[in-house]
Amino acid sequence: MTLALDGSAGGGQLVRTAASLAALTGEGFEMTGVRGNRDPPGLRAQHATAVRAAATLCDADTTGVDVGSERVVVDPGTLRGGDFAFDVGTAESLPLVVDALLPLAVGLPEPVTVELAGGTDVRHAPSLDYLRHVKLPALRSLGLDAELEIDRRGFYPAGGGELTLTLRPSTLDSVELSERGRLAQVAVHSAASNDLADADVAERQISGVREGIDLDVPVREAAEYVSTRSTGSVVTVVADYGTHRAGFTALGERGRPAEDVGLAAAAGFRRFAGEPGAVDRHLADQLLPYLALAGGSVTAPERTRHVETCARLLDAFGAPVSIEESDALRLSATGAELTR
Fold it and tell me: Where is each RNA 3'-terminal phosphate cyclase domain found (predicted)?
């Protein structure tokens, strides 16, 4: 049976997650109205690459996996290991492509290595440092065996970033992230292209973070300059609560003082510090597929559209997630035996 899915209420997350779930479950889908509420609608390069990558790893037959397509059909085969390579072809987000591949570790029969090319730090997507310092540690704590090598960063507009993702067959533990715990330490990761070194952009972004938050816990700071095809910078504040982390990112922009970039990332942290919930609002929806698969509970600051649309998608694949609102948003699941 092929699931009929409506993609008009959500963004690229819906079609990426659907491709991941199809690969894991063997359940095919037809999604219409893909990114129907976005301008422009349809797949962008990062979404098409993510779906194509997940489909390739499960030897799927596909229709409509092209830039601009508003109808995508995936008929999955069997997950397999091996070595693969995918190029977004633009500066669009590689972390979002990785996002579609990570759940597949739960159903892999043998390891997979995937070489990826595109953008690493771009607007409307998790930064590279959020992926490697917040999301990946959270998934590893659940038992997901994944490694990420950074060969080159890529900023807009030229991209040119290069990552290598390795996934190994994994079994997940239940997700238990209901309590935030005490803040143990904060790390600030600031990166800029080599041509910004004389202006001390990476260090000034850190100065902006320092100005924006006043903490009585240890703060680790890392500034680096990297070879890139386009000028760019990024700063990510990582708050470590012992059992898990939260992350807050800001991108450099032409004409925007580097200190203001750091202040923007600090403002994200300050907002979270005054809110309920264990995980930040972005990690909440990214953890939903793992929560649905392994069971457990997560609390987050608020009910977002991404949480709602992802929960509906998971329910369509037979992996329901309960959403309860009180002081904090509570997401819970009993766990579903979806893998083949």
Answer: 10-317
